[in-house]
Amino acid sequence: MITPTVVPSQQQKGDTTEGKFVSKFGVVIVVVVVTVVVTVVVIVVVFLSLSINKEKKDKKKEIR
Q1: In Å, what is the CA distance from 60 to each residue of 4, 16, 48, 49?
Q2: Which string of b and e fits 13-48 if b means at least 16 CB within 10 Å?
Q3: C-beta neighbour count of 61 within 10 angstroms
Q4: Which stretches of the chain are DSSP H helices?
Q5: Is 0.70 surpassed by the pTM of this model?
Q6: What is the pLDDT of residue 42?
Q7: Summary mean pLDDT of the chain
Q8: Taking the domains of the chain in order of start, what are their residue ranges?
Q9: I need a labelling partner for 43 at 20 to 30 A (CA). Which of 16, 27, 33, 35 fits?
Q10: In this predicted model, what pLDDT tens digit does every residue of 11-38 receive, in sequence order?
Q11: Can you give the pLDDT at residue 34?
């Protein structure tokens, strides 16, 4: 009896659309996460710089 052999190209044909969808979905997730992280970092840096400037101004007022 001959055992059936599975050709890799035939096996991959069914997975290509799902694989493309998953990879596109992965790229979208990565882009969203990077955008959110960059936005949060910018907001934190701006907030910290504003608070530092405010403290400097408060100290100058106390000296005068």
Answers
A1: 85, 65, 18, 17
A2: eeeeeeeeeeeeeeeeeeeeeeeeeeeeeeeeeeee
A3: 8
A4: 8-13, 16-63
A5: no
A6: 97
A7: 77
A8: 35-64
A9: 27
A10: 455 555 666 667 788 899 999 999 999 9
A11: 97
